[in-house]
Design brief:
homodimer; 326 residues; alpha+beta; Arc Repressor Mutant, subunit A; Alpha-Beta Plaits; five-stranded antiparallel beta sheet; 12 strands; 36% helix; ArsR-like_HTH (chains A, B)
Chain lengths: 326, 326
């Protein structure tokens, strides 16, 4: 029984009445599961076949007694997922092709209250004109669609996740080792040192979400006067891949991507962080810096980092949406 | 140049005027450095000798030009400290003896606003009567002393840190491996599963502080109706030590300590978390559960987990202070 099926069963057990797939999809967000209504229906059919749920009327479902028993026994063995697995899974599943700029890319999803939208976009404007963002493309989703459910009175903002870089390099046969999410101190506009680090393979919470929640960033200061703290991550590549990585990155830059702030030297620590043997450290900006800037103004967002795969062609220029809101 | 010397230099550079050791000690807290005025004076003398600071009048110091240069170059190599090092260092340095109940024990320090003190103690009362606390002894410090500086309008609360268990076992030659800090879901009063985990060797922020800040606990629910979420940690001991650990733990219980919620089986996962070969998992309560309970009522505290070593004999019964406040 996978996490999604369990989450759906949990919702049905909690509601204890007939509910439809659309409502289930909305409630799933509370469990950190992002699914389209269509995918929810697919999972509901599996549950029906196993006798754990029962159809009532048009699309409505209710949990069966067998479903309740399954829920009780199954959830004891439900595992805590570690972030590194999410990174590796989505990197593998992404089919974004840098040459054609087509395919599904990894995005972070944030939900912004509608009545704070103008202020939020003002706060992000300078971030999208800075080096501390992966791309100036965003997803701007106002109503539910096949892939994303948007909670009432909110708008969904998608930003290109920095793990998209891993996915692009992986498609070229280059393995990127994601080590730490961190808060990077900026002085004189340059990376100076990490103030905080959390290892991706040792946490079930996304490090960048932790730093945003803990109010540890000062993206605004970093951009406006060159002194501040931005979200960044520390990764490693095999030394043998360096030239190829630079070549692909230069191609990425032509297509409007950026994000690598520093390359280290083979076997040499980068900003005091040691690397593995025959590896080179790289420092990559966090895709959530625009969202950190929103939170710095006191607006609360609900954010899910390294969230999902989304069609890159559906993304639009930040400026386009921003100008419309003015 | 160690972190303390650097922090003192930073304060002097920022103030840019003559300041005394008492004021420096207070400001050091902002850098997470807990030192007595006396220890600050000791460090200032080192800085004087190196020509980095200069004495002005009675106890006042100012930073020299050489001090500024040193600060600039030294802080680039200042390292981010990982929590596991703090755990191992304090476990080794603690000289608390369980038989005589004398010596320095590891404590967490929290600062509570004076005007919220009564409410805070009410919130903690049921925690100190529950299994989710290491000991019913606390430090209650209202004014600066040789070891602790108390910020204005605050009171310092010290709770026995769960790492004290590591220290006691280490004195008996038993190595404890601290793996994860976590949020432990309680059902029917029993540990059910971990909701979140962060590895101690992969984070520069204390996991339990992160969970408190992120409002992920429900200590109140866990105690009042048996369903909730408490702070806990996952550790491992070598299988060969099990009997000895149980023997020492039983001695600890006689002296008023508690905190081990579960012992696993050799080589067997405990609450789904796999252990190393020939090791046994144990689940230990977080020493900060009383502080989590305070935060759950909406009172903001400033907390430093696994903070410092303090004379156990200076600790008093929670009830004694609590009764006085009623």
């Amino acid at each position: 029984m996978n996490r999604t099926l369990l989450a759906i069963l949990k919702i049905l057990a909690k509601e204890n009445k007939i509910i439809g797939s659309k409502e289930i999809a909305k409630k799933l967000k509370m469990y950190g599961v992002n699914l389209s209504e269509r995918t929810v229906r697919y999972h509901l059919k599996i549950l029906d076949e196993r006798g754990l749920t029962k159809v009532f009327g048009k699309e409505g479902r209710i949990i069966t007694e067998k479903g309740r028993q399954e829920l009780e026994s199954a959830s004891t063995v439900e595992k805590v997922g570690f972030i590194i697995n999410k990174i590796e899974t989505l990197s593998y599943l992404s089919d974004f092709d840098i040459d054609s700029c087509k395919g599904k890319i990894i995005v972070n999803l944030s939900y912004i209250p509608k009545n704070k939208l103008k202020k939020a976009f003002q706060a992000m404007e300078y971030v999208f004109n800075s080096p501390f963002v992966m791309s100036n493309k965003i997803l701007f989703i106002e109503e539910d669609n096949n892939n994303i459910v948007v909670p009432d009175n909110h708008v969904c903002l998608g930003t290109v996740c920095s793990v998209a870089l891993n996915a692009i390099l992986l498609k070229h046969g280059i393995p990127v080792i994601s080590r730490f999410g961190g808060v990077l101190e900026i002085r004189d506009g340059q990376p100076y040192r990490f103030n905080a680090l959390i290892s991706y393979d040792g946490t079930s919470l996304d490090p960048l979400e932790i730093f945003i929640r803990g109010k540890m960033t000062d993206v605004s200061g970093a951009i406006k006067n060159g002194y501040g703290r931005v979200l960044a991550s520390f990764r490693e590549i095999p030394t043998v891949c360096l030239e190829k990585v630079k070549e692909i990155y230069s191609e990425m830059q032509k297509k409007g991507f950026q994000g690598i702030l520093m390359f280290g030297q083979p076997n040499q620590p980068l900003l005091d962080i040691p690397v593995g043997i025959d590896r080179i450290g790289i420092i990559v900006v966090g895709g959530l810096n625009p969202v950190a800037a929103i939170e710095e103004t006191g607006i609360k967002t609900y954010t899910s980092a390294i969230s999902t795969l989304y069609d890159y062609q559906a993304m639009v220029d930040f400026k386009e949406i921003s100008d419309n809101l003015k």
